[in-house]
């Protein structure tokens, strides 16, 4: 029977949805014979918890909605009696039937005080109480790894859908301009977390349509981006290239009435020189210069190797011997955008954009292509993916590493074990 431990209401939803309650010889709290024909479909929006359920009370079959609460009195506490969207509730499922429940017209709502094996509650409570990196790490060896593999697709779709909101919001800010929105998120990605914010501000300071007017001149593109970054204001004097850029920006600044980013926002400390924002800005300029209609090209590209080729750019020659303005490095170095950086851009910008664009434009082949790109990219090499590997769950592709990130950040960190394929199995175990 049930334990007195306080489990959240979502646990009751889990028990009901998975039909884990004792279903034999059911009676309503009024003593009427009850049979659950169908538990219904979970509602993730406002209104009753489950739609399209079917039950038999006595000789009568009822079709409608099911509402679930820990206590029957929650019905009144949540003002359901005065809410017309709850008038079609055919069954109130509760852990504790502490009062009679009625509709706005005074008619009573059939109520089931649901019971289930105590082991399920204990299993769930053990996960909630765990203090380990992931709640189930001492137990998940009991679950066939194939169960998690089968759950990756759902986790990956969930991760992409989570990113949809940000892209849709940015589209609204940019008046549904896909190219501008893509450019802003691409620029943000060139900051690779540490400089993401100033790169985004830079993209807004110099919109894509202005860069497009100068896409044939890498020098003017760099003048626009470096000038708007505020990094040309650091020193009064400098080498020849620095001075030429600043002079050119002086003209473009007035022409477009630009408002530069504050230079102090850029971070150089604790970064490898190849990741300095100066090098990244030059690489972004090269990408604009070499890839006219980049977003359109991405929509047309079906092959992952061809997609990577679009991003294989390098900073201008000045940066072969510099990492910062006016400070020559001791030796020449490569300034190409590396394979790992390209993969990161595809995973975090290109794939979500393809997915959202495919959804919004009803081009579902683009959504499938986005997932296919992830399958063909190597797994990410970050602390979370490494930790999963130490626990024996090794990602074989970016698709799986992204799924593992979603699992840890959204489900494990928030103890949403009931929505995890492994946690789901462990809770339902009677071993």
TrEMBL record:
Q: Cross-referenced InterPro entries, in alphabetical order? A: DUF2851 (IPR021272)
In Swiss-Prot or TrEMBL terms, this protein is called DUF2851 domain-containing protein
